[in-house]
From TrEMBL:
One of its GO terms (cellular component) is mitochondrion. This is 2-oxoglutarate dehydrogenase, mitochondrial. The keyword Transport does not apply. SUPFAM superfamilies: Thiamin diphosphate-binding fold (THDP-binding). Pfam families: 2-oxogl_dehyd_N (PF16078), E1_dh (PF00676), OxoGdeHyase_C (PF16870), Transket_pyr (PF02779).
Length: 1014
């Protein structure tokens, strides 16, 4: 008889009237011990449990019994023997005297749908007793799942549930089953709870009390959605175990002192600068002790460096009392002094800092950085994560044990800004994880003037965190000791599981959106109640005085001591004559600028032997891996690469690989990130080879060029532009001696990363003295692919450049590098692989760092004319800002009637059309490779070669887009307005490209005719 038929027969043997609850208790006990299994009930075959049916468990035991009859309970052994011997239906079962007590340890279940039961149950136990035990188990589970929904979280008392109804809401009307007399009955506690500590039984009254204390007081714990039993049990133990929230007198005194400083700082600023916006922390002063507790506990667990991001509210307090930034530096920001160094600066509550100090609680040195951030946008979230990941990478902290990111959020922004969701989804990706972030939400229960009913659709502002199984700890901010416990648990969670965790500080905002705002206009009831509330520092001081932990005199002394510190710093600040933006740098590069000529770059050309070696390795299958199966199409690509190397030529992909490889040889880490960058959107790069027959067997070619090279990181990102670009920006800020690149799948898609581009990349150095060498590769070109796959919006980047179109800089020997040092970023549209090679290497060769915006090609990746010789990349070669005409027209300059300037792919269209029109000696075509900063010197020199020629700018973009608006006034300035430059290209348009292939071809034909017309 086969096993399936045998199983069917076994199930038919179940005797009538066998209690289903007995097998239910066993199935849910968490032990699943074969030897403790109860006999099968009548309805066994029809009752599904735990992602399967009970019949699956019978089959498991039957299989085990076949191998070893002693591996199952004696009753099952008897049952199987009788059934297989041919016993009549209903006769194989023999009732056991008892159900054995399960083993006292947790074994993960395959589902968390129901909680375990571990009570010893006599076989003769009546159904009501068993059902009562299961009901108690259901009550415990109900508190664990929904207790947070009726916890006392709101300091204002506005959203506190009615205590008369809350039990019924949470525990599913358990009193319908239990009478008052049942409240003192003892019940055996299941293994799904830790409320008993060492006690195995409690009365129902005590069970309810302990559950209420754990889940319905000042802390609301959301965790039962997590799909790991180990993690759920860990959280249960941290919150349910008796006495877990105990604080000794020393800890309480420290907490009061920290609250006093937090409150005192805000009160001092309110007195001294009453008309200034500062976005103070009043109403959530507990944030400072909370952050310090996270730092203290994490430091004790081994963390040495903390990278933090936050919105404007409370930033100055955090800078002062968490990071210990000198108070004089903060006060000078209010006084209104002129800056004594570079940069335009930013408002004081957007600034960052970097501090190294001793943690006096743990007696360990720590590093703290707060990343500068624009307002409430949450835009700093991925920047913090990228910076954290980079610190971990360069410190060899592969598990995140030494470097921790802490992100602060506002409640309205946490649910309202999509970047929060994008950043959460980076948290578990191999090349983007920071191994857990501690999120702290300053939950004002209101946005600017918008209450939660209007600002989100979810019950909590933190619900977005559930997507990554992050536990969420809601806590009443007016219960300081509860907050400290939550902070300890959050720190330990991150240290244990290396996953994100959220602390939701439910508080209020004592003032309006800022200190001069009137909140009563829109929230009269809320602010009527707020006006009557005591600050939390007073509430806690009163509590400790009543507990005789401190005296009123001691409270006053602590307050007066900090007040004197503030006054002394205020007096010192008034003696300052200038403020210095350099004091607010969040990413200092120690030693990078020292000993360098600020206007001298190292050469970008490399020895031909290096080019050949890299080219050959990049064109080969993995060495010493004869069993590594490469795709046949890739073998053809590798062979064609090798042919190019032998011919001393490179295409775009090979030129890029040589730039990367030569930097890696020099010890420069290269990181390339973006959507599909490993292969390349246009299937041109193939930096990672995939074994065609073994999953996850990969070969990173450029990571294996030299035995002592720097690491090469190439990583496909999530389908995100905003978060991933922010992440790479943060990564680039950490180490100046690294080439960090983000590539858009299509250049058009940088639209969704515009916030990072505007707020951080374009203006970061001016606002925050933050240099970055980040490179943006943006595939760009009008090729008939429609409006969403054509333009990288070159005009937007050019509009944000900081060079003046009306001022002609003084030409000098160091003119080119001086321009680079003074501009906010570099924008280029290279037309040759060699120039691409040089401009990438120049990012590292410069004695400073500037973002590089590169319009990269699509069709040119395989264009037969878009190739370069090794001669253009060797030691004698350099980056060419302008590539002049070198054909027949350059040999007969007096006869040239027109000189066309262009940039990028359109050059190849123009030279083909010029050749077809037989105008190679009449029209000169020059390429502007570096558009910004504008190459005034070379443009002027090139124009002077053709004194009688008409000057034309030709571009493939529409007239109101592309480079035209940028280059037109600069050409005029370069030529002292003596010669006109005219436009040849597409007319103005609200859309970057047509969606019609036929229209595209017609537009291109007209463009070429206009450009070549004489």
């Amino acid at each position: 008889m086969n096993r399936a038929r045998m199983l069917s027969k076994l199930l038919s043997q179940a005797p009538p009237g066998t209690p289903l609850v007995a097998v239910r208790a066993w199935l849910l006990s968490g032990t699943r011990s074969m030897a403790s299994a109860p006999p099968p009930p009548t309805a066994l075959a029809a009752e599904p449990f735990l992602n399967g049916s009970s019949s699956n468990y019978v089959e498991e035991m039957y299989t085990a019994w076949l191998q070893d009859p002693k591996s199952v309970h004696q009753s099952w052994d008897t049952f199987f023997r009788n059934a297989t011997s041919g016993a009549a239906p209903g006769q194989a079962y023999t009732a056991p005297p008892t159900l054995a007590e399960p083993t006292p340890h947790h074994v993960p279940l395959s589902s968390l749908a129901l909680s375990p039961v571990t009570a010893t149950t006599p076989a003769t136990m009546d159904g009501k007793t068993i059902d009562d035990h299961l009901a108690v188990q259901g009550i415990i589970r109900a508190y664990q799942i929904r207790g947070h929904s009726i916890a006392n979280l709101d300091p204002l008392g506005i959203n506190t549930p009615d205590p008369k109804n809350k039990r019924g809401l949470v525990v599913r009307n358990y009193m319908e089953r239990f009478q008052e007399g049942d409240m003192d009955r003892a019940f055996t506690l299941p293994m799904s709870t830790y409320i008993g500590g060492r006690e195995k039984t409690l009365t129902l009254r005590e069970i309810i009390k302990r559950l209420e204390d754990t889940y319905c007081r000042s802390i609301g714990v959301e965790f039962m959605f997590i799909n790991s039993l180990e993690q759920c049990n860990w959280i249960r133990q941290k919150f349910e175990s008796p006495g877990v929230m105990h604080m000794d007198e020393k800890e309480k005194r420290l907490l009061l002192a920290r609250l006093t400083r937090s409150h005192g700082f805000e009160a001092f600023l309110a007195r001294k600068f009453s008309s200034e916006k500062r976005f103070g922390l009043e109403g959530c002063e507990i944030l400072i002790p909370a952050m310090k507790q996270v730092i203290d506990r994490s430091t004790s667990l081994g963390v040495e460096s903390f990278v933090m991001g936050m919105p404007h509210r409370g930033r100055l307090n955090v800078l002062s009392n968490v990071c210990r930034k000198p108070l004089e530096h903060i006060f000078t920001q209010f006084i209104g002094l002129d800056t004594g160094d570079e940069g335009s600066g930013d408002v004081k509550y957007h600034l960052g800092t970097y501090q190294e100090r001793l943690n006096r609680v743990t007696n360990k040195n720590i590093r703290l950085a707060i990343v500068a951030n624009p307002s409430h946008l949450e835009a700093c979230n991925p920047v913090v994560q990228g910076k954290t990941r980079a610190e971990q990478f360069y410190h060899g902290d592969s598990e995140g044990n030494k470097v921790l990111s802490i992100l602060l959020h506002g409640d309205a922004a946490f649910s309202g800004q999509g970047i929060v969701y994008e950043t959460f989804h980076l948290s578990e990706l191999p090349q983007y994880t920071t191994h857990g972030t501690v999120h702290i939400v300053v939950n004002n229960q209101i946005g600017f003037t918008t209450d939660p009913r209007m600002s989100r659709s979810s019950p909590y502002c933190t619900d977005v965190a559930r997507v990554v199984n992050a536990p969420i700890f809601h806590v009443n901010a007016d219960d300081p000791e509860a907050v400290m416990h939550v902070c300890n648990v959050a720190s330990e969670w991150r240290n244990t599981f290396h996953k994100d965790v959220v602390i939701d500080l439910v508080c209020y905002r004592r003032n309006g959106h800022n200190e001069i705002d009137e909140p009563m206009f829109t929230q009269p009831l809320m602010y009527t109640r707020i006006r009557k509330l005591k600050p939390v520092v007073e509430l806690y001081a009163d509590k400790l005085i009543s507990e005789k932990v401190v005296s009123e005199q001691e409270v006053k002394e602590v307050t007066d001591k900090y007040e004197k510190i503030l006054e002394d710093a205020f007096v010192a600040a008034k003696t300052e004559t200038q403020v210095f933006n350099k004091h607010w740098i969040d990413s200092p590069w120690s030693g990078f600028f020292e000993g360098k000529d600020p206007l001298k770059a190292t050469p970008t050309g490399v020895h031909e032997d290096t080019l050949t070696h890299i080219g050959k390795r990049f064109s080969s299958v993995p060495p010493n891996a004869s069993d590594f199966v490469v795709h046949r199409g890739l073998l053809r690509i590798l062979n064609s690469r090798m042919e190019m190397v032998n011919a001393r030529t490179v295409d775009w992909a090979l030129g890029e690989a040589m730039a990367f490889g030569s930097l890696l040889k020099e010890g420069i880490h290269v990181r390339l990130s973006g959507q599909d960058v490993e292969r390349g959107t246009f299937s041109h790069r193939h930096h990672i080879l995939h074994h065609q027959k073994v999953d996850k067997s990969l070969y990173n070619i450029l990571a294996n060029l030299y035995p002592d090279q720097a690491p090469y990181t190439v990583c496909n990102s999530s389908l995100s532009e905003y978060a991933v670009l922010g992440f790479e920006l943060g990564f680039s800020m950490t180490n100046p001696n690294a080439l960090v690149i983000w590539e858009a799948q299509f250049g058009d898609f940088n639209n969704t990363a515009q916030c990072i581009i505007d707020q951080f990349i374009s203006s970061g150095q001016s606002k925050w003295i933050r240099q970055s060498g980040l490179v943006l590769l943006l595939p760009h070109g009008m090729e008939g692919m429609g409006p969403e796959h054509s333009s990288a919006r070159l005009e937007r980047f050019l509009q944000m450049t900081s060079d003046d179109p009306d001022i002609l800089p003084a030409f000098s020997e160091d003119f080119a590098i001086r321009q680079l040092s003074e501009i906010n970023w570099i924008i280029a549209n290279c037309s040759t692989p060699a120039n691409y090679f040089h401009i990438l290497r120049r990012q590292i060769a410069l004695p400073f760092r500037k973002p590089l915006i590169l319009m990269t090609p699509k069709s040119l990746l395989r264009h037969p004319d878009a190739k370069s010789s090794f001669d253009e990349m060797n030691e004698k070669s350099i980056f060419q800002r302008v590539i002049p005409e070198t054909g027949p027209a350059s040999q007969n300059q007096e006869n040239v009637k027109r000189i066309i300037y262009c940039s990028g792919k359109v050059y190849y269209d123009l030279i083909a059309a010029r050749k077809d029109a037989n105008l190679e000696d009449k029209i000169a075509i020059s390429r502007v490779e570096q558009i910004a900063p504008f190459p005034y010197d070379l443009i002027k020199e090139e124009c002077m070669k053709y004194p009688g020629a008409e000057i034309v700018w030709a571009q493939e973009e529409h007239k109101n887009m592309g480079s035209w608006s940028y280059i037109q006034p600069r050409f005029a300035t370069a030529l002292s307005h003596d010669r006109l430059i005219t436009y040849a290209g597409r007319p103005v348009s609200p859309s970057p490209a047509t969606g019609s292939k036929k229209t595209h071809i017609r537009e291109l034909k007209q463009l070429l005719e206009d450009a070549l017309a004489l």
